[in-house]
Amino acid sequence: MSVLIVGSTALDSIKTPTAENPRLLGGSASHAAVAASFFSPVKLVGVVGDDFPKKYIQLYGRHGINLDGLQVKPGKTFHWSGEYEVNMNNRRTLLTELGVFETFSPDLPKAYQSSQFVLLANIAPALQHHVLDQMRRPKFVVADTMDLWLNIALADLIKLLKRIDGFVLNDSEAHQLTKEDNMFAALKKIHKMGPKYVIIKKGSHGSILSGPKGFFLCPAYPLHTVVDPTGAGDSFVGGMMGYLATARGTVDANIRKAMIHGSVVASFCCEGFGLNRTTKITRQRVAQRVKELEKLTRF
Ligand code: AMP
């Protein structure tokens, strides 16, 4: 089964204390789509301008990503730029040029509307609603978000929480949404807002799932060097959804393993700028790290 992924498709200019890389392939949907493609076919919905490099279209193609839902509009591709501090955790946005993203309407090709697994990657909640309005009875819908939408589109986001099965956010966003410092208390409050599955991401400290079968503490793969963590969260949720879309059995039975696979793909993402490293790995490399992670956490 394939996974439908809707989100931003961007050019990212990233600065770290040691290097600077302009106009890399980025965006929430790009990271999530490449991550999901290791496990299942992917249908991508996004928008790019006529300046979008052909090599990036080819890169999506090499990952077998269906691009019938990728709109190419006259104008500039969404351009985001960020700078990391020495600790590689704190990030400052330097620039956001919306370009064709400003008027983006995620209209789904007919063949996409019956998708069973849907990832609403980080975009404005109003656009995430628009996607759901076009869907025919999806089996499992997960949404991601960012602090910007908690600041400027909270009412839309709260309404969205009633329409989705799973919600993924990071620890500072969970705090912002619930005013809880304790993540287990925050998870409880977020369930009350709608979603049956809530996942709080904690960067290099892994993530916590709260679902019908209780909690799951998902580790991050230990890395000695982080080159660029941009898109790690998107890779995590993309990998998780790709795994779920092809796994046999129920979401309940598979979601823990799916998170582990997402966590491993996210670790590769951090080892290179943008998608440079993720696009060079294989399913076998993912499987190896999953085994290592299993050894590290079994007791
Ligand atoms: P993450 O590192 O998981 O926070 O995701 C970083 C990705 O989010 C980058 O590739 C950006 O292109 C993308 N991004 C940044 N700002 C926005 C925004 N306002 N809406 C959608 N995507 C964004």
Q: What is the topology?
A:
Blueprint: E1 3-6, E2 10-15, E3 20-26, H1 28-36, E4 42-49, H2 54-62, E5 65-73, E6 79-84, E7 91-97, E8 117-120, H3 125-134, E9 140-144, H4 147-152, H5 154-161, E10 166-170, H6 171-178, H7 183-192, E11 197-201, E12 207-211, E13 214-218, H8 232-246, H9 251-270, H10 283-297
Parallel strand pairs: 1-4, 1-8, 2-6, 4-5, 8-9, 9-10, 10-11
Antiparallel strand pairs: 2-3, 6-7, 11-12, 12-13
Adenosine monophosphate binds near residues 27, 122, 148, 230 and 233.
Query: Radius of gyration in whole Å, from Cα?
Result: 18 Å
Q: Give helix % range.
A: 25-40%
Overall structural class, as computed from helix and strand content, comes to alpha/beta
**What is the subunit organization of this protein?**
single chain
How would you spell out the order of helices and strands? EEEHEHEEEEHEHHEHHEEEHHH
The biggest beta sheet reads: 9 strands, mixed
In total, the number of strands is: 13
Instruction: Tell me the overall shape.
Output: globular
Beta-strand content bin: 25-35%
Low-pLDDT runs = none
As laid out across the biggest beta sheet, the strand order is 5-4-1-8-9-10-11-12-13
Q: What is the averaged pLDDT score?
A: 98
Bound molecules: adenosine monophosphate
What's the end-to-end separation, in Å?
34 Å
Total helical elements: 10
